[in-house]
Specification:
It contains 4 helices and 8 strands; from the N terminus they run ββββββαββααα. It is α+β, with helices and mostly antiparallel strands and 169 residues long. Bound molecules: zinc ion (ZN) (2 copies).
Length: 169
């Protein structure tokens, strides 16, 4: 889904896009559970291009405590600014520019909306996802899912490094 900036001007142009799960490559252990819809606009003023809009989809991932599958609803709004790179800058210059201005550089007068949406989804998924707020997680001793079983490991096994301390009580 490449947008050619030659077709974009100062007046915001509406864009509505839909991405199939196979076309958005998220991080390991995550994938789109349904198509991702983007509704927004793009405008360009001089060397700066602004993309703003909303992304809605469902991402399937795993609970960060018990590793069971979880579907997370995503409905996010974002704004991203892209600046034309003059001539090809060195990597140092790119880092400084991106850090200081929170903008991305583009070098070929095109914006790949698939990549823009992918990055926003990855940012949205950085936050830990839990299957339920009070997920008990996996037992560090037997690996059992403590939401499902009461394995009693904690009561029965004491790490030898702590056993000595326990005797002091
Ligand atoms: Zn869980
Ligand atoms: Zn256990």
């Amino acid at each position: 889904m490449i947008i050619d900036l030659a077709s974009v001007g100062k007046n915001p142009k509406t864009i509505e896009l839909e991405f199939e799960p196979a076309n958005i490559d998220l991080d390991d252990g995550m994938q789109l559970a349904e198509n991702a819809a983007f509704n927004g606009e793009i405008s360009r003023d001089g060397t700066r291009t602004r993309v703003a809009g909303r992304i809605a989809t469902v991402v399937s991932t795993e609970c960060s405590r018990c590793l069971e599958p979880v579907a997370k609803d995503i409905d996010l709004e974002f704004e991203a600014v892209f600046v034309d790179a003059a001539d090809e800058p060195t990597e140092d210059e790119i880092e400084v520019t991106v850090d200081e201005l929170d903008e991305s550089l583009i070098t070929d007068d095109k914006i790949d909306m698939t990549e823009v949406v992918r990055e926003q989804l990855i940012l949205a998924m950085i936050e830990k996802v839990l299957c339920q707020e009070d997920c008990k997680g996996l037992c560090p001793q037997c690996g059992g899912n403590r939401n499902l079983i009461d394995c009693k490991c904690e009561e029965n096994v004491i790490d030898p490094r702590w056993a000595a301390l326990k005797n002091l009580k």
